[in-house]
Amino acid sequence: MSDLHTPETWHAALHRLQRDGIPHVLATQVTSAGSTPREPGARMVITDDAIFDTLGGGTFEWQTITTARACLAEQRYGLSLEAFSLGGRSGQCCGGFVNILLEAFPGTTTHIAIFGAGHVGQEIVKLSAPLPWQLHWHDSRSDAFAEQYQQQPRLNFYPLQDAQHSVAALRADTHALVLTHNHDEDYSLITALIDRDDVASIGLIGSDSKWASFEGRLKREGYSAKQILRVRCPIGRIQATKLNNKTPYAIALTVVAELLWLTDAPSSQENRGLDSQALRTLMTDSPTTTS
């Protein structure tokens, strides 16, 4: 893969990548001893296919980029500390020594598919804007997506022409919400979603009578009780079992709250941040340069 070199500054790139939920690494030079290309505080941002700004170039920078991309490929997110002797490991003639702090960000790991751009769908999209989710918004109407949404970060638009095709294109572990303007379209989407066993969750908007009709039809068509139980109807029920406010905004609030519960995952790390011993060594020991 060839690198895309861009004049975009590291801080502009960092803001954009964070906003758009794209995996990236921020590399910061935190110490400098002897002769080094740049001073502490120098930064660059690295993605799978692009580099923003520089730590000074040469083999040392190439090794920093390689290490950063290994973090992304192996999904080793968080902080790590790299030491470079500019004459030993890096094969450079400066003879100095630097420590580089790598901060690897996973980008967006939660994907939400919203089928339907009606009033409730619009409110869900607006309420989800500050959250670190990638939204995939589908509708069969050509004029469904208002211009006001075009600049919202992490929001993607898709024409909904065939339920099977649209559902087949979803990423694994996507959380799907079905709330189109057409009951037949809703049903086609529900059957397509049930047929995929790797969809993270399936939510359907509707009344008890609508769900009773769908459930009966699913049973008659041979779907098992286990498959049918994968569908939550109505969506937002976890938070709003007795909610009397049925406005689109209120319904959207309960749906987003429900998704927060469904997508929240505790950290498996006992220790967070830099290894304490490595940090003590960095702060108390003077590096010895090698040639």
Automatic annotation (TrEMBL):
A Pfam family reported for this protein in Swiss-Prot or TrEMBL: XdhC_C
Domain XdhC Rossmann: 113-259
Region annotation Disordered: where it falls in the sequence: 268-291
Domain XdhC- CoxI as annotated: residue spans: 18-78
Annotated signal sequence range: none
InterPro entries associated with the record: MoCofactor_Util/Proc, Xanthine_DH_XdhC, XdhC_CoxI, XdhC_Rossmann_dom
Gene3D superfamilies per UniProt: NAD(P)-binding Rossmann-like Domain (3.40.50.720)
PANTHER family in the record: ALDEHYDE OXIDOREDUCTASE MOLYBDENUM COFACTOR ASSEMBLY PROTEIN, XANTHINE DEHYDROGENASE SUBUNIT A-RELATED
Protein name: Xanthine dehydrogenase accessory protein XdhC
Organism, scientific name: Vreelandella boliviensis LC1
Lineage per the UniProt record: Bacteria, Pseudomonadati, Pseudomonadota, Gammaproteobacteria, Oceanospirillales
Gene name of this polypeptide: xdhC
